[in-house]
Structure formats: structure tokens, C-alpha cells
Amino acid sequence: MPRVESFLTAAELSQWLRVSRNTIYAWVSRREVPFVKLPGNTTRFPRGAIEEWIRKRISSGKGLSRGTYLEA
User: Fold this and answer.
1) What pTM was estimated for this model as a whole?
2) Cα separations (Å) of 60 from 16, 48, 49, 56, 63?
3) Could you tell me the CA-to-CA distances from 4 to 1, 43, 57 in Å, in that order?
4) Three-class SS of residue 21?
5) Per-residue pLDDT of the chain (72 residues; tens, 9 = 90+)
6) Is 36 helix (H, G, I), strand (E, B) or coil?
């Protein structure tokens, strides 16, 4: 049986990411965040797609190039 995707509301996503709902809707309007439009102009966010979206944005930071040392 296929896995059923869970969906988040804008309020749930804003709490999870600790940003305002206005920020969530700004991302939607710029198509920066994965979302689904349902009948009645309802917006939902597929949890799996959001988790992947977050993983792609994790920075590992800048590494030091070879031969570069920090002074103590």
C-alpha cells in the first residue's frame, strides 16, 4: 500500500520553522517553498517535500583551504 503523505498548514509550518505565517505566504507567492493548492484556495505543505527542501538548504559552512591555519 502506498504511503500517505502528511500535510502541514501554514500555521503548523510557521511554528515548526519559527517564522511568521506572513513569511510562509511570502515564500509561497515567490514559489520558494513546496506547497499544494487545494480546492477553496487552501494551501498545504507536504511534510516530506518540506523536509527535503530544508535538507537542501543546510550549509556545511566554509572549510579552510589547504595550508590555511588560524592563529591562536
Assistant:
1) 0.74
2) 22, 22, 21, 11, 8
3) 9, 18, 25
4) helix
5) 556 679 999 999 999 999 999 999 999 999 999 999 999 999 999 999 999 999 998 876 665 556 555 554
6) strand
